[in-house]
């Protein structure tokens, strides 16, 4: 009896992998072994990048809050400490948005916290 390799599933897997390689340059887009390696590496970088994005955005928010806080006569760390003491629960994303687009509202929050 011949050995069954499930050719349909293997071809489908290759086709779907090569779809992910669309836009790659040279043999990376159409040679199975090379494309497979580069796709796996790309997916690994994408996974790591999703984690790094969270870190980078948080640090960006902190920089924006600190700049706006210094314009209002305080620092980032003093502002966050004062917000925690007064039980004002606003996350850094919203604070940064207010600091950038609504400086008067941010100034009122700083005034209430301090």
Q: If you had to describe this structure to a student in words, what would you say it looks like?
A:
This protein is mainly α and about 110 residues long. The protein has one domain (about 5-114): Ribosomal protein L20, C-terminal domain (c-terminal domain of poly(a) binding protein), CATH 1.10.1900. About 75% of the residues lie in helices and about 0% in strands. It is built from 5 helices and no strands. It has helices spanning about 5-20, 30-70, 75-85, 90-100, 105-114. Helix 1 (about 5-20) crosses helix 2 (about 30-70) and helix 4 crosses helix 5 (about 105-114). The longest helix is centred in the middle third of the chain and has 40 residues, at about 30-70. It is rod-shaped, with a radius of gyration of 25 Å.
Give the topology.
Layout: H1 7-20, H2 32-71, H3 76-85, H4 92-101, H5 103-113
Helix pairs in contact: 1-2, 2-4, 4-5
What is the CATH first-level class name?
Mainly Alpha
Measured distance between first and last alpha carbons = 82 Å
Overall CATH architecture:
Orthogonal Bundle
CATH topology: c-terminal domain of poly(a) binding protein
Describe the global form: rod-shaped
Q: What is the makeup of the main sheet?
A: none
Quick tags:
c-terminal domain of poly(a) binding protein, rod-shaped, 114 residues, mainly alpha
Short description:
The protein is mainly alpha-helical and 114 residues long. The chain has helices at residues 7-20, 32-71, 76-85, 92-101, 103-113.
């Amino acid at each position: 009896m011949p050995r069954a390799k499930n050719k349909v599933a293997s071809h489908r897997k290759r086709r779907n992998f090569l779809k992910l390689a669309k836009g790659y340059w040279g043999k990376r887009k159409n040679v199975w072994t090379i494309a497979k390696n580069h796709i796996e590496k790309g997916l690994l970088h994408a996974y790591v990048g999703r984690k790094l994005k969270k870190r980078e955005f948080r640090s960006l928010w902190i920089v924006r809050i600190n700049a706006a806080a210094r314009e209002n006569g305080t620092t980032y760390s003093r502002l966050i400490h004062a917000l925690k003491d007064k039980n004002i629960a606003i996350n850094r994303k919203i604070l940064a948005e207010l600091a950038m687009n609504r400086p008067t509202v941010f100034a009122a929050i700083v005034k209430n916290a301090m």
